[in-house]
Structure formats: C-alpha cells, structure tokens
Amino acid sequence: MNLTYTVLIPLIPLFMFLVLGLNYKRIKEPISGWLGTAGLLVTAGISFYTAFQYFFNYGKIDGVYQKIYAYNTEWIHFSNTLHIDMGILLDPISAVMLIVVPLISLMVNLYSIGYMKKEPGFTRFFAYLSLFTFSMLGLVLATNLFQIYIFWELVGVSSYLLIGYYFEKPSAILAAKKAFIVTRFADFFFLVGILVISYVAKTFDFKILTDLDFINNLKMQAGMFMGLSVVTVALILIFIGGAGKSAMFPLHIWLPDAMEGPTPVSALIHAATMVVAGVFLVARLFPMFYFFDDGFALHIVAWVGAFTTLFAAIIAITQYDIKRVLAFSTMSQIGYMMLALGVSGYGGHEGLGFMAAMFHLFTHAMFKALLFLGAGAIIHAVHSNYMQKMGGLRKYMPITNITFLLAALAISGIPPLAGFFSKDEILAAAFEHNMPVFIIGYIVAGMTAFYMFRLYFRIFWWNNPDYEHKPHEAPATMTIALIILALMTVGSGFIPFADFVSPDNTPFHSHIDWTLAGASIGIGLFGILLAFIFYKKENDLATRFVYAFGRVHKWAFNKFYIDEIYFFITKTIIFKYISGSFAWFDRHVVDGTMNGIGNKTVWISSKIKGLQSGKIQDYAMFFISGVLFIIMIVWLFLN
Amino acid sequence: MIAGVSIYEILTVSTIIFFIGIYGFVTRKNLIAMLMSVELILNSAALNFVIINKYLFPEALGGAMFSIFIIAVAAAETALALAIIINLYRLIMSLKTDDLETMKF
To answer: What is the distance between the alpha carbons of residues A278 and A285, in angstroms, rounded to a whole number?
Structure first.
C-alpha cells in the first residue's frame, strides 16, 4: 500500500501559492481566484479520498486505528533517536482535520471570489489563502513535534499577512502586529516545551511519544521540577503555545482585533481552522497530558478552557460589532473544546471528552465558518460592521437569512443540527468527570444561545433602518458556499464520531443521555426566548438593561480592560522602567565606553601622525635603522 | 670557480654594491635615481646567491634559480614603479621627492 501520494495534499496549495505569488501582477482578477479554488479542489479531493480510505479501508487493524506514516523523511539528524523529520502522519484526528481544513478552505476560496471582487491585491489574497492552507495541512499532518512547530509558525505568518491584508489601514496593521506578537510570545513557551521534551524523551516523534510503554518508561526516568514531573512542566509550556494560537485567556487579546482582516479570512483562520490548532495540539499529545502526574496538565487545560468559555461569552453579549460577537463566540466555543479535552479520560467510554472535543471542533468549523461567511455577506450588503445599522434584512437576503438561522440554531445546540450532538457529548463528559466545569459549560450554553439570537434577531428582524443603498443578496459564488456549509451544518451531527475518534484509537459507543440533552436544549431554548423578547421588534428593553447594569456592562463591553492591563504592563512597566533603564545603560555605559575608546584613538593618532613626514627618504632611514637595530639585537643574543 | 678569484673578493664587491644602493636610496631626491638604487640592492643580493651557490654548493641549483626569480621580480617591480612615477609626473610635473609630501595622511 503506497501512500506517498499524500504528500500532494500540502504541496498542491504550496504550488498554487508560488504560482499566484510570483505572478501576482500577471494573473488578473477572476482567473487567480478560480486558479486557487481549482488547486484547493484537487487537494480537497485527495484529502477526502485519503480520509475515507483511512477510516474504512486500511486504518483499522484488529479494531484499533493505527498511526500510519504515509511518508517520512529525515531532515536534520542529531542522533539516532533524535532527528527532525518531515512527513505525513495519518491517524483518526489528522484524518478528521483532513476533512475540515480543505473543505472550509475550499468554501472560503469560492466565497472570496465574490466577496473580494474589485479589491486591490485580489491575486495576493488568493496566494495568501493558499499559503495558509498549505501551512495548516502541514500542521495537522505533522509526524513530530518539530514539524508541527515549523508549520505552526508558518500558520502564524499567513495569519499575520491576511489580517494585515488592508495594509493601508493603520488599524489593520496594528491588529496584524498584535496577533503575530501575542502568538509568537506564546510560541516561545511552546519551543521551550519542545526542547525540554526532546531533552528528556530524546525524540520528537509522535508515534513514540504517545506510545503507552514509552510513557511508562519516561515516567520513571524523567526528573522532578517544583514537585512536578519535568514532562508535565514541558506539557504546560506546550499548552501555553496552544493557548496563544487558540486565543485562550489571558492570551486571547489578539483574536477580536484580528477581525480587521477580510471576513473570509476571519471565517477560515480565526474561526474554523487555525484557532483550533491549540485543541489539535493537546489532542495530539493527549496520552502524555493524561498520564503524567495524574493529568495535572490536563486539569489546567480544563480550567483554562472553562474560564475562557465563560469569560468570552459574557463579553460576546455586550458587543455591537457583529464580527466581534462572532470572534468572542469562537473563543467561547474553543474554550468548550479545551474543557472537553480537559475532562476526558483514557480508554473506552472514558474517552468521551476527547471524542467530543474533536467532534465539536468538526461541527464548530462548519457552523462558525457559515456564520462568518453569512456575516460577510451582510457586511457586503450593508457596508457596516455594526448591528445598529442593520435590521429587517430577512426580506432582502433570504438565503443568508436561512443559512444564518441554521448556523445560529446549531451553535445554540438545538437538535437535529450538528452543534446539538457535539455540545451534548461535551456536557455529558463534563457531567461525569468534573461538576464545576459542567456547571460553567451549562450556563455558557444558555448564554451562547442568547447572544447568537441577539445577533440573529437584531440583524434580520428588528425594524428597517433607512438604508442608503437597498441591500441585496450576495452573488452566486458566495451563496453556493453558504448553502454547502449549511448542508454540512445540518448533516454532520449524525456522524457517529465515537466510531472513528477516541484517545486510544479504539472505537467505542456513545449514546445520547436524553435527560442531560433535554436540560441543555432547555437552556438553549430559554436563551433564544430571551433574545426573542429583547430583539424581535424594536424596543428599549435592551437599553434599559444596559442602564440597569451600568458599570458591569461597561466593564464587559470594554472586554474587562484586559487590553488596557496589557498596555499598562508593557508600556508603563516594561517599556518605561525596565527597557528604559536598559536603554540608559546601553546609551551611557556601553556606548560611552566604545565612544571613549574611539575618541582616545583619534586623539593619540593626531599626536603621533607628525612622524609621518611624507618624505620617502625618512621612511627609508627608519626602515634601514630598524633592520640594523634588529640585526644588532639578534647578534647580541646569539653571542 | 673563477680562477684566481676567491669568494671573499666577490662578496666584498657585492657588499660594496649593496651599500652604494642603500646610500643612493637614502640620499637621492630623484625618484628615477632611487629606483636605480633599489636595482643595485637587488642585484647585489642576486650576485650573492649566484656566488654562494657556485663556491659552496657547486652541485646545487637553488641559488641560480633564486637569482633568476630576483631578476624577474626586479623587472616587474621596475615596470610598476615606472608606471607610478609616470602617473605622478603627470599629476605634479615633478620627480622630486620633496614635492610628494602632500601625499602623507
């Protein structure tokens, strides 16, 4: 069974990036879009084929899904066990990502042909999209920690380029820089974690690192640090890297600002694919997280996830910019996934949380991309991001209305849409293993329904403002993408995920616990009802509530002043006092010493340069007398 | 071997030529004359090589080879020096070393 063809999956987008990037002036507007889409179509075809073959044909041996190296080549050699490879790893979670990433990417590409019409730099945009898809596929297919790190950074770069796509806008540049620096800051910890693990385990390889015998051996050998195994410390560091990319509190500050990028980018990178990289990373190393120090690192994952999900949901309720609402909603949902991973056990039905996290990742990618693309269509029609300028759009944009409603229902967890199934599994896993986390998750489920339908009713119902241009439905390329994603949103919940994904790669059976499901549907419906009362028709109920909550609302509306705290720490404390004193030392002591040496040299040379008379005879005399002098000395010493 | 002439006499001659060269190089103010003095120094060295080879190591060829190298180097050096001198002359219309003081630092 030759699987070498799988290298084409990341390489085709790379090729498209090179073609479009190198010829971005020659290839004109619609053609470049279609070229990028065609490349992705091929990639998606190969990916789906590979994933299908993996799950139904060769992946399972004796009822256990194998980790298969479809391709692996040594890149840098350190020792016989420690070497950096480049390759393609097939296992259930990478196969799931092989469906998510190319599908969303393809939809977003198709959508962008309509959305980015007549934008300057159209070809550049598609080149970047291809670069991103390449990096993301390389990340999910990575065979070792170092390869994942390389592609992790590449993903960060493409995210930076795409957020800063409107580089004439100062706010876009700031947002791009912020996203890059914050995630890069987190990646520093990730790198340290990788180095620690490679030092202790002497390997980067995932197949070895997640092997249970190897983990048991490592438990004996690894040293201790502050009462924890060194490996646990490394895993926490790696999780910090994942938290940066996945916008977990307190490294989330870049995600809301990243909405400065074009909306399709937000849909692809900042909702469906890149931001779940952290979840993917934890899932990838899940056996290590679970077995070291009784899952201490995993507890941290669970609590960071739980806190972020609540925190982001509170902020999402107060925002007016529709893309920001969706951004905070994304944070909240990723927090959900982290939470699910955190409460997961290992083996059989215990692995429910792990499965639920991957399931939610899958369904969330579908409906969140759909929500973002819908928001893009709305922004395209209304020319504003703010919900105060919207209302009554259901008459003008029927397709967007229906697809947006489906996605909103899905994220609120209403059956039979996809979100219901995955969210129910998460809540079930939390209920079994960690009650406080379950309560947070349960409350957030209601809040999610509320802010989502606040958005929906406010945009599509409310009353009609006076539109300057009458809004119109989006062009066909955009609506086709919406419809396909809507179909996925409706259908993907019925996939029996437990048959495919589990922490120990052994399928198990999960069933819906209807009492729990009923409770979560109940709180979802309650949230929707509340939103219905507040926002169905124009009224001042919401405004009165804002006044009633006053300071609390202001606090949440300003995102709990986390950005300001960051600014205070970086600008006032670090820049002014720490960097300031370093700068003073550098300018006065280091530079002063060097300048002093230079000045002294100039001074000495000005004193002695009179010796250089310019007369050749003088030089000759010096030379000859010098030679004679040396001869005399040598002669004296020899005798 | 040259009949009736000992190595000391020839070495004396080469030493005299060498110091004439040194004296000329230090005292002459004309660039061409200085160049000629340098040639004298080189020639005395070449003469030493040949004579020592001839009298002390008659079966070896190293000294003769070296003097040929010295001749080649002297020719090249002369060509280079003359080129520089011609350019200098074009620049300052003089060959006096005193007029070259402006070239210091």
So the answer is: 11
CA A390, chain centre distance (Å): 30
Q: Which residues of A touch B102 (CB under 8 A)?
A: 614
- Put simply, whether B25 touches A (Cβ < 8 Å) is yes
Q: Which helix (H) or strand (E) holds A77?
A: strand A68-77
Q: Is the residue at B19 inside a domain? A: yes
Residue B103 counted as domain residue: no
- Would you say residue B57 lies in a domain? yes
CB contact under 8 A, B105 and A616: no
Residue ranges making up the domain that contains B50: 7-96
The residue among B26, B27, B35, B98 with the most chain A CBs within 10 A of its CB, best to mutate, is B26
Spatial distance between the Cα atoms of B52 and A399, rounded to a whole number of angstroms: 108
Q: Tell me the pTM.
A: 0.78
Q: Which residue has the higher pLDDT, A78 or A192?
A: A192
Encoded tokens for A111: 């959508």
Residue A16, token pair as written in the block:
């498209």
Tell me what pLDDT residue B1 has: 66
Which amino acid, A545? Answer: F
What is the average per-residue pLDDT within A126-148?
91
B26 touching A (Cβ < 8 Å): yes
Q: What is the pLDDT of residues A173-229, one digit of tens each?
A: 988 998 899 999 999 999 999 998 888 888 888 888 888 888 888 888 777 777 788
Residue A286 to residue A621: CA distance in whole angstroms: 83
Q: What is the pLDDT of residue A131?
A: 92
- The number of folded domains in chain B is 1
Q: Which of A252, A382, A381, A371 is nearest to A323 (CA)?
A: A371
ipTM, two decimals, is 0.78
pLDDT in tens, A493-519: 888 888 888 888 888 887 777 888 888
Q: Where are the beta strands (DSSP E) in A206-310?
A: 224-225, 228-229
| Token reading at A364 | 């969330």
Residue A634: is its pLDDT beyond 90? yes
Looking at CA atoms only, how far is residue B33 from chain A in angstroms? 12
Any A CB within 8 A of B45 CB = no
Low-confidence ranges of chain B (pLDDT < 70): 1, 103-105
Residue A26, both tokens: 């020659």
What digits encode the pLDDT tens for the residues A540-554? 777 777 777 778 778
With 70 as the cut, is the pLDDT of residue A167 above it? yes
- Considering only CB atoms, A612 lies closest to which of B22, B34, B105, namely B105
Q: B100 — contact with chain A (CB < 8 Å)?
A: yes
Query: Does position A599 have pLDDT exceeding 90, yes or no?
Result: yes
> A–B: how many Cβ contacts below 8 A?
27
B94 inside 8 A of chain A by CB: no
Measured distance CA(A110)–CA(A44) in Å, rounded: 13
Half-sphere exposure of A207 (CA within 13 A, CB side): 16
- Name which of B27, B34, B100 is nearest A614 (Cβ-Cβ): B100
CB-nearest partner of B25 from A609, A612, A620? A620
pLDDT in the model for residue B105: 58
At a CB cut-off of 8 Å and minimum separation 6, what does A108 contact? A129, A264, A265, A267, A268, A369, A373, A481
Domain-embedded: residue B101? no
The verdict on A621 touching B (C-beta cutoff 8 Å) is: yes
- Name the burial class of residue A515, with classes exposed (0-12), middle (13-18) and buried (19+) by CB atoms within 10 angstroms of its CB: exposed
**Tell me, what CATH number does B50's domain have?**
1.10.287.3510
Judging contacts by C-beta atoms under 8 Å, the chain A residues touching residue B97 are: 615-617
Among chain B residues, the shortest Cα distance to A609 is held by: B105
Could you identify the residue written with the tokens 């949380």?
A: A353
Mean pLDDT of chain A: 86
| Minimum CA–CA partner of B28 in chain A | A617
A103 by DSSP, 3-state: which?
A: helix
